[in-house]
Amino acid sequence: MLTVASLSRAELEARLAGPGLSVQTGPFVSRIHSPIERIAEGIATLYGDYPLRDFDGFADFHVHMRRSGGLRRWYRPQVSFDIDGLEPFEPLPQEHAFPMLEWALNWCISTRAHAYLMIHAAVVERDGVAAILPAPPGSGKSTLCAALVSRGWRLLSDELALIRPQDGLLVPVPRPISLKNRSIDVIRDFARDPVISRPVENTTKGTVAHVKAPGDSVARAHESARPAWIVFPKYEDGAVTSLEPIPRARAFFRVAENAFNYSPLGAVGFNTLADTIDRTVIYDFRYSVLEEAIAVFASLKPPAA
Amino acid sequence: MKHLPILVRALRDPDQLVRYTPADWDLLLRQSAATNLTPTLLSLAEARGLLKRVPAAARAHFDWVRPLAARHRQAVRFEVACIQAALQPTGLPLLLLKGAAYAMADLDAGRGRLFGDIDLLVPKARLDDVESALMLAGWAGTHHDAYDQRYYRQWMHELPPMTHVRRGSSIDVHHALVPETAPVRPDPDSLRARARPIPGMPGLATLAPDDMVLHSAVHLFFDGEFDKGLRDLFDLHRLLGEFGAEPGFWDGLAMRARALELGRPLFYALRHVQRMFGTEVPPAVLAAVAPEGPTPALGWLMDWLFAHALLPLHPSCASAASASARFLLYVRGNWLRMPPLLLSRHLFHKAFLTPRAAA
Question: How far A186 CA lies from chain B's nearest CA (Å)?
Fold first, then answer.
């Protein structure tokens, strides 16, 4: 199977600027178009392991990252995201192009793929069972996710838990993990030789960089996993590591609050979430030391299937 | 028929879906997503049992919209029941228009059709009662600016849209089909007198079939906004297809249009459903409606404008012509809403006074 890494940098840029680069991430094929150098750089750094999908002309999302800004392009160039003529975001400075592409790809999935119950959460798996880490922003979810993945957990997603209503299994969409501010250096020190994209400063989320997903996680993107734990992570400076079970009823609403499409799915959303809650053990988790957090996750016991 | 966009060809003849290549599906689903018509395509494919023959990658997109369509259907039923309960004290029947009418009456035109607002028609003399009853049940008015209030209450054919404070659902309460300031005045009393109860749903009614078609026609062809134009034209295609099979429907249509002063929009509707979707219209009806049409020169211009403005709102169908057509029709739509002096005053207010008040 041909991967993005099989293209030379010149071929990659030519595809992006011309017919588009069709990449498979989990169940989705995205065709990305962009003449912007930063996009090619980010893709070359982080997407080498992903399969190219060019054989039949079908893609799920047609994503354009364009140079925009009219006259402004000469002194303050901007980038805009457009999908089939729709521009859901305001343009950003062109240096933000790659993080914007990642946000755009998340947006495509979370606003369209309603065949799944979609929760704003990281998902990691070990021995066939998975932990869902739902997170309001600022909870340190991505840092913890990147740390776990660097210690042998398989990455299913850093942003989107996709639960299939038919069987309650988690469908992987392994893509780069988004890190903010201090977390970038934390993971640089913690992980063994992480591949991290060039940090982009002054975004709405501060300084942002992305960590490459492990090749094994990308290669196993077709293997779904059974949810075993739901863990609400919370990073707190100096906190003592603690893992507290949460009653199911309260957990239900906290997960629903983090879902993208709980309400639009109606009864399907309710039943899928209720089944997931029934089959998992649910915790509040506080931590400040990553090594201790890893040890706690290593000791988690899955509930009987 | 030459060079029709693939979405139009698929809506026109859903049987050809089974012959599409993956590249065809790619473009079709992009056009249908941009126009909110994917659930409609799904309903057409399902009704013909074609779904199993759709390639898996394309079928996934149908799986994405299926829950939304089901939820929408359920939400409409729930909202209609709430509105009906709210209006109970007024003693008025609930006369539904457009999307909500198609859905509740289980018409073909309602299958897989997504819409935002629920539209109802009430007697003008009872507007105050209806508005109070809805407010008591949790719907609050919008557009609180004094000018907007005057615009709706004095000149328009509806109250300012009402939104439910908790559910966010939206209702448009109409007392007529066209603005008070428009040059034509389809008689609302006659529309209500001919309304039909929805079988099996006590207290709910729709317009009579011919009036439903005429309302859809005037809504599309006298309005200035064509962003949902293709969907609305397909409504007309499906309404005519379903009602056309009822005995007597075609016989009275042209006469009814004349009685309501809606001959011109019916002329355009029949002309453009035929051109776009190949809808079958009896020659006698076309002949009866022909005198309602524009002069040949104007007719040529209007054909050009509508043919461009009704295309799917997607970059693959966009051109300088479609953008100008939509702009010119927007101007025309405003022109048809109000007499010129009032219109200039309205546009002046919207351009210069509203922004200042908002600042």
Answer: 38
ipTM: 0.93
> Which pair of structure tokens corresponds to residue B184?
């034509």
Tens digits of per-residue pLDDT, A140-165? 899 999 999 999 999 999 999 999 99
Tell me what percent of the residues of chain A surpass a pLDDT of 70: 98
**Which of residues A68, A95, A112 is at a domain's end?**
A112
Helix, strand, coil percentages in chain A from 3-state DSSP, rounded to 5: 35, 30, 35
Q: How far is the CA of A26 from the CAs of A160, A195, A220, in angstroms?
A: 11, 20, 9
In a domain, residue A305? The reply is no
Do A23 and A153 belong together in one domain?
no
| Contact assessment for residue A161 and residue A132, using Cβ atoms and an 8 Å cutoff | yes
Which pLDDT score, from 0 to 100, does residue B141 have?
84
Q: Do B21 and A57 touch (CB under 8 A)?
A: yes
With residue A245 as reference, give the H or E element that holds it: strand A242-245
CA distance linking residue B265 with residue B248, whole number of Å? 21
Tell me, yes or no, whether B11 lies in a domain: yes
Distance in angstroms (rounded) separating the CA atoms of residues A156 and A133:
11
The CATH number of the domain where B137 resides is what?
3.30.460.40
A57, A84, A266: residue with CB nearest B70: A266
Asked whether residue A175 falls in the same domain as residue A231, the answer is: yes
Give A286's contacts (C-beta < 8 A, 6+ positions apart). Answer: A234, A235, A236, A239, A240, A241, A242
Those residues whose C-beta lies under 8 Å from the C-beta of residue B54, and which sit 6 or more positions away, are B17, B18, B25, B45, B62
A74, amino acid identity: W
Question: In a mutagenesis test of the A interface, which of B30, B54, B169, B314 is the best target, namely the one with the most A β-carbons within 10 Å?
Answer: B30
Q: Which of A190, A181, A109 is nearest to A145 (CA)?
A: A190
Question: What average pLDDT does range A191-200 have in this prediction?
Answer: 93
Indicate whether A108 and A172 sit together in one domain.
no
Asked if A56's CB is within 8 angstroms of B64's CB, the reply is no
> Of the candidates A90, A112, A134, which is a domain's last residue?
A112
- Whether the CB-CB separation of B5 and B31 falls below 8 Å is answered with yes
Whether residue B1 is contained in a domain is answered as no
The torsion angles phi and psi of A48, rounded to 5 degrees, stand at: -55, -35
- The string of pLDDT tens digits covering residues B102-133 is 999 999 999 999 888 999 999 999 999 999 99
How do beta strands A61-68 and A92-93 pair? Answer: unpaired
Report the gap between the CA of A41 and the closest CA in chain B (Å).
27
**Are A122 and A29 within one domain?**
no
**Shared-domain flag, residues A60 and A97:** yes
Contact B45, B63 (CB under 8 A): no
Within-domain flag for A260:
yes
Query: What are φ and ψ of residue A144, in 5° steps?
Result: -60, -40
Q: Which domain holds residue A229?
A: 117-298
Q: Which of B33, B67, B313 sits opposite A266 (nearest CB)?
A: B67
Which residues in chain B come in under a pLDDT of 50?
Answer: 1
- Identify whether residues A45 and A145 lie together within a single domain: no
Domain enclosing residue B11, as ranges: 6-358
pTM: 0.91
Q: Using CA atoms in the order A91, A92, A93, A98, what is the torsion angle rounded to 10 degrees?
A: -120
Numbered residues of chain B with Cβ closer than 8 Å to any chain A Cβ: 21-23, 25-26, 30, 33-34, 55, 57-58, 60-61, 63-68, 70-71, 74, 313-315, 318
User: Are A150 and A287 in the same domain?
Assistant: yes
